[in-house]
């Protein structure tokens, strides 16, 4: 078991603490949070060991789980890496691309592993179909959330849309060519609603919409590729694959058949993959433990986290 400690005991930090304590791959050593009064309440209520400083926690563990506000990600990660500790760092990886690149360099220099908390990679609705996503040419995402003051210290692109940016970059095997975007601030100091169009060198186009002042929650992505359409509902954990194939010689009388202007006929097939319930946060944490133990590449590497941030910044720069 890997000895792990958590930096940050806010809403998400408490979830990480609970899951690390439950995990059979980690030994939860304790946590540190600079807000002493709140930290003491967490320690008293749940029995976790509260460290007096970041330095003391880092010295006592092998893995540092960074669940602090984005502004402090870089300094926390730097301190941990320079002491030879592996880091799990919540998304976005850092506040700036320069900081993200520095973290990548440090991790390589000190021979430590790092994973970024893009948890939607572990959403069962996505994992059920990700191997079926093959060279998509158009992708459309909608990530809408009811207003919550938590997270409004950063633009909605870094708060919400970055999840979809990471998913898209993980399935499109091509470099970003151009980005067009617009965003408006409604209640926050930074944009609350944003729309972006990402064009890739291979011709794929992705259209992303994110809002944190919606009347309802929605997290849907649709992938369009040759002879197939794949829909993923990250919120309801459902997915669907619609395929078009050549019509067989003797089609079923209830078969759905389309015919184009040239007379070519295609039959439509529907597939709803079985979705296995899971705890995506626990899965991402334990996958990182496996990467450390086996010396393999993490599912969401520091490089991928930095690339998602780079594209997010390209979108923000359009505003």
TrEMBL record:
PANTHER family: BILIVERDIN REDUCTASE A
GFO/IDH/MocA-like oxidoreductase domain: residues covered: 155-217
InterPro entries: Gfo/Idh/MocA-like_OxRdtase_N, Gfo/Idh/MocA_Oxidoreductases, GFO_IDH_MocA-like_dom, NAD(P)-bd_dom_sf
Domain of life per record: Bacteria
A GO molecular function held by the record: nucleotide binding
Coiled-coil residue spans: none
Sequence ranges assigned to domain Gfo/Idh/MocA-like oxidoreductase N-terminal in this UniProt record: 3-118
Protein name: Oxidoreductase, Gfo/Idh/MocA family protein
Natural source organism: Polaribacter irgensii 23-P
Gene3D superfamilies: Dihydrodipicolinate Reductase, domain 2 (3.30.360.10), NAD(P)-binding Rossmann-like Domain (3.40.50.720)
